[in-house]
Design brief:
The complex is a heterodimer of chains A (118) and B (808). Chain A is mostly helical. Chain A has helices at residues 2-21, 28-37, 42-67, 71-79, 85-117. Chain A is built from five helices and no strands. Chain A is elongated, with a radius of gyration of 16 Å. By secondary structure, chain B is of the alpha+beta class. Among the domains of chain B are: 212-230 and 246-566, 4-Layer Sandwich (Glutamine Phosphoribosylpyrophosphate, subunit 1, domain 1); 572-708, Aminohydrolase, alpha-helical knob region (Penicillin amidase (Acylase) alpha subunit, N-terminal domain, Orthogonal Bundle), CATH 1.10.1400.10. In chain B, helix 19 (614-629) crosses helix 22 (674-689). The chains are: A mainly alpha (118), B alpha+beta (808). The interface between A and B is large, with 40 and 42 residues.
Chain lengths: 118, 808
């Protein structure tokens, strides 16, 4: 469990750093690497990466939303069929979760594939 | 499962997710932005969520600057620009316009150059095609070439351009305005040509409401006699902008004969929206007519209400001026405003400065055309219209001496029609300096000097000074017409078919310190019939009469009275039409809801207030009567003909109730009078009003008119409904989409101006900012903000942050 949480936090940290300085898809690369390094099955890697991406994206967007007094989230929510700000934040989290999760899963699957060849 | 299969599947999932996240998604007719970029909290829309932490002091350096500039942002996000010279002020103004409204700048310049389809796809192709056919870019290029001969003009717009470009070049792509992220494109470099183009954009908005094609179709349809009856040159009893008489001016134009033009044209471009209601009021009273003893000047231009607003507030201080007011995006200086000495405001003249002329080709390949007894070579311009997601459209536009062929024979169903527009002309290389000079004018003479270089369109520019002078000049490119030419399609082969010259400055009407102690304009006719120069146009008479009546009926007026006038929803049209209509409804057989509607009209005070039901009923009733009355004029192709001015219907209602125009065209053998029409129309009106409820207490004018401030891209989520009253013929000239775009009241006291102003919107173009729409409620309630002419940066109250600019 400790390894899982440590891996997830590492994924979140790397996602945060790469997102801050590079394009939106940059977290793919460290997530593949971390997924490879950790001894996870690909499903577990996905879960860990998903939670990392989900938590990071939703916490950051939540902080932005609160300091913006929900002005923009209300308007963007209306743009997307009238969804609320909270749903918008959760949706943002899912977008980040799938990105980081599937990247970590690729890393883990790659490791299993290489080991199976050996 | 084999590891290779697992790897393949996860890789497939990741690749698919990246592909989906990186590309726009089509949902029906809508296109969603790429999910990955748009929802990323680091790249996407979340970055446009503005917070107080974003209001940080900033320092920048640029080689264009010659001195130091300080821009202090106040608590409504108004930039107060303190510069050591005019060029630096223009740079700072450009920078601030880009910082606050970059998307608006970009889309406005695309709209006026026919390049919207590059970012919006084929839905804007008709617009782009029309702009290219009208030769707007061609005209702007000619104009810029002329302006480049005046170094002072060029320095100012170059500095303004540099300011915009500095902002664009240093913009972090994460901070791109939301609309760029939604549409998935990047802002372009700003150019001098874009400054000229955007200055022509307002000219086009205000002057291209033209009925040449409609009039030509109509006169062939209803005959000359009925046409002249329904569309007379002027209204009896009108109250013109300049009371005259104009005995000192003489017409030096010889009338030329016109051949009868041929009729029956199609107009391929979208029909003009009659509800657009481009209107405006301005007036000034002298100290003798003011409760304070000081001149008071007011202005409220009525334009399309949008997010962001068409206007942006600025305050500019240099050693030569201290000026405050509103600007248009894309051009420097203050367009409507005040300084320490004077104030000025603008309304549209309404003159017809567009002519359509039919070309007589001298060769089958249309490479030559006839003009008088000459054969002249046609010029060609290849227009490539980019369309998002599709192949570009190539359109070859032919040019004659009059201008471009805007409507081809295939489209018109008859001949090729040339578009002649005053906005494509330039008379002086110093035209761009009009507002620069006006911004620093100190007295009546300097106002008149500034006005003398003002180009198209014809505007009524009101003036007041702390010296006590008031004035109003109608200024712009005023065609010197030989007769009533300009109403119909005319013959391009004769040089007398359209105007050849514009009136000289000395021939334009001006009123200075009149005996009645006020000057005013509200889009009505400029002059009475003693003015010797013929002109045609689209004029609104009710509002002008209402304004002059209100200014005359009180001996002394206070600033509070001025605010009440600006917010007045009273309709003179309703007062003049309704009593006669109600008499026709005596003993009418009505349902309970119809009876309640009639009762509400009987007690109505002719005020289009937001919560009243009567305006909804009257408006629908009047419009239904109008359609039934003038069915002769619109029966064939409603979009290709037009309705008479509404004062004509009011005149018929009161004086000519048995006129044959009331006879319904389709009911052959039966002759209807106004009484028959009024009953039919009333029933239709009630059907339109009692839709969701049969109870009169559920009906309000606001819900019926449903006015809104729409985002420039017409995205409902970024738009806003507004709870206001008004109607285009009232002083508070509201329609569903247009209204008072800036309300300003300036009292010129001996120690400086006391100024009030408000527009429906906010300074920021960012939907994620609290400054996007923060003035809407103030405006809706008919209130104003106090405006201050601070003399230095430290004096600005409630400053949010400061931007310092230095020479690099």
């Amino acid at each position: 469990m400790k390894t899982f949480i440590a891996g997830m936090l590492t994924l979140a940290l790397c996602t945060w750093l790469t997102s801050k300085y590079f394009a939106w898809y940059a977290p793919v690369f460290p997530a593949i690497l971390i997924g490879y390094v950790m001894n996870w099955k690909s499903g577990k890697a996905f879960l860990s990466g998903f939670l990392a991406g989900f938590l990071l994206y939703s916490i950051v967007s939540f902080i932005i939303d609160v300091s913006n007094h929900h002005i923009l989230s209300t308007r963007i929510g209306q743009l997307f069929s009238g969804i609320s700000g909270i749903v918008l934040i959760l949706f943002t989290g899912i977008i980040g979760g799938i990105l980081v999760g599937s990247s970590a899963a690729v890393g883990a699957a790659l490791k299993h594939f290489i080991h199976s060849k050996r | 499962m084999k590891p290779s299969v697992v790897l393949f599947l996860w890789t497939l999932i990741l690749a698919a997710w990246i592909f989906i996240s990186a590309n726009p998604i089509a949902v029906g007719e809508q296109t969603l932005p790429p999910l990955g970029t748009f929802f990323s909290p680091y790249d996407g829309f979340w970055q446009n969520a503005e917070s107080d932490a974003d209001f940080k002091n900033l320092e920048l350096n640029h080689p264009t600057l010659n001195g130091k500039v300080e821009v202090v942002m106040d608590d409504r996000m108004v930039p107060h620009i303190f510069a050591e010279n005019d060029n630096d002020a223009a740079f700072a103004q450009g920078y601030m316009h880009a910082r606050l409204r970059l998307f608006q700048l970009d889309i406005a310049s695309r709209a006026i150059s026919g390049r919207l389809s590059e970012i919006l796809g084929s839905r804007t192709l008709d617009h782009d095609k029309q702009i290219r056919r009208e030769g707007i870019v061609w005209g702007a290029e000619k104009t810029l070439e002329r302006y480049q001969k005046d170094p002072e003009s060029m320095q100012l717009i170059q500095a303004y351009t540099d300011g915009i470009n500095y902002y664009i070049q240093n913009l972090d792509c994460r901070q791109l305005p939301l609309e760029f992220k939604l549409l998935g494109y990047q802002p372009e470099e700003w150019t001098l040509l874009k400054c000229v183009l955007t200055s022509k954009s307002m000219a086009r908005t205000l002057t291209t409401k033209n009925y040449d094609i409609q009039n030509s179709n109509l006169i062939s349809e209803i005959g000359d006699s009925l046409f002249q009856f329904l569309f007379p040159h002027a209204q009896p009893g009108q109250s013109p902008v300049h009371p005259g008489p104009f005995n000192g001016l003489k017409n030096n134009v010889l009338p030329t004969s016109q051949e009868s033009p041929v009729y029956g044209y199609n107009n391929p471009f979208p029909p003009q929206d009659e509800q657009q209601a481009f209107a405006s009021n301005n007036w000034a009273v002298s100290g003798k007519k003011s409760t304070t003893g000081n001149p008071i000047l007011c202005n409220d231009p009525h334009l399309q209400l949008t997010f962001p607003s068409i206007w942006i507030e600025n305050h500019i201080v240099t050693p030569e001026k201290n000026v405050y007011g509103v600007s248009l995006l894309g051009v420097p200086h203050i367009i409507i405003g005040f300084n320490e000495y004077i104030a000025w405001g603008i309304t549209n003249g309404g003159h017809d400065v567009v002519d359509y002329l039919e070309v007589k080709w001298a060769s089958p390949d249309k490479k030559k055309y006839q003009l008088d007894n000459e054969t002249v070579d046609t010029e060609f311009r290849i227009e490539t219209i980019g369309i998002k997601g599709q192949q570009s459209l190539i359109d070859t536009v032919r040019y004659t001496r009059w201008g471009p062929v805007a409507i081809t024979s295939e489209e018109s169903g008859k001949g090729d029609l040339v578009f002649r527009w005053s906005g494509n002309d330039a008379k002086s290389e110093r035209e761009l300096l009009t507002f620069f000079l006006l911004n620093k004018a100190k007295n009546l003479q300097e106002y008149l000097d500034a006005m003398s270089v003002f180009p198209s369109p014809i505007q009524n520019v009101v003036f007041a000074s702390r010296d006590g002078d008031i004035a109003l000049k109608s200024q712009g490119f005023w065609p010197l017409r030989s007769n009533m030419s300009g109403q119909f399609i005319s013959d391009a082969a004769k040089s007398g078919s359209s105007w050849l010259h514009y009136l000289d400055n000395s021939q334009l009407p001006v009123t200075i310190n009149p005996e009645r102690q006020f000057v005013s304009s509200a889009n009505q006719h400029s002059t009475d019939d003693t003015y010797p120069y013929v002109y045609v146009g689209v004029f609104e008479e009710f509002r002008g009469r209402t304004l002059n009546k209100k200014l005359e009926e009180k001996a002394l007026l206070s600033p509070l009275d001025m605010a009440a006038i600006q917010n007045s929803n009273y309709s003179l049209k309703a007062e003049e039409a309704l009593p006669a209509l109600l008499l026709l409804m005596q003993n009418a057989d009505l349902t309970a809801s119809q009876q309640s509607a009639l009762e509400s009209l009987k007690t109505w005070d002719y005020d289009y207030s937001a919560q009243s039901p009567a305006p909804a009923i009257f408006n629908e009733w009047f419009n239904a009567i109008e359609k039934l009355t003038f069915d002769e004029t619109i029966r064939e192709k409603p979009s290709q003909t037009r309705l008479p001015d509404q004062w004509k219907l009011v005149e018929l209602i009161n004086d000519l109730q048995d006129h044959s125009v009331f006879d319904i065209y389709e009911t052959a053998g039966k002759k209807e009078s106004l009484k028959d029409i009024a009953m039919q129309a009333f029933q239709k009106a009630c059907e339109s009003v009692f839709v969701d409820s049969q109870n009169i207490s559920d009906i309000t004018w606001n819900a019926h008119q449903n006015p809104a401030i729409n985002h420039l891209l017409r995205i409902p989520a970024l738009s806003r409904k507004i709870k206001v009253g008004g109607i285009p013929d009232a002083l508070n000239a509201m329609s569903a989409t247009h209204g008072p775009s800036w309300r300003m009241i300036i009292e010129l006291t001996p120690t400086g101006p006391k100024a009030l102003g408000v527009y429906p919107g906010g300074q920021s173009g960012n939907p994620g900012s609290k400054y996007y729409d923060d003035s809407v409620d103030t405006w809706s309630e008919g209130k104003h903000h106090e405006l201050h002419l601070y003399t230095n940066a430290a004096a600005v109250e409630k400053a949010l942050f400061t931007i310092k600019m230095n020479k690099l």
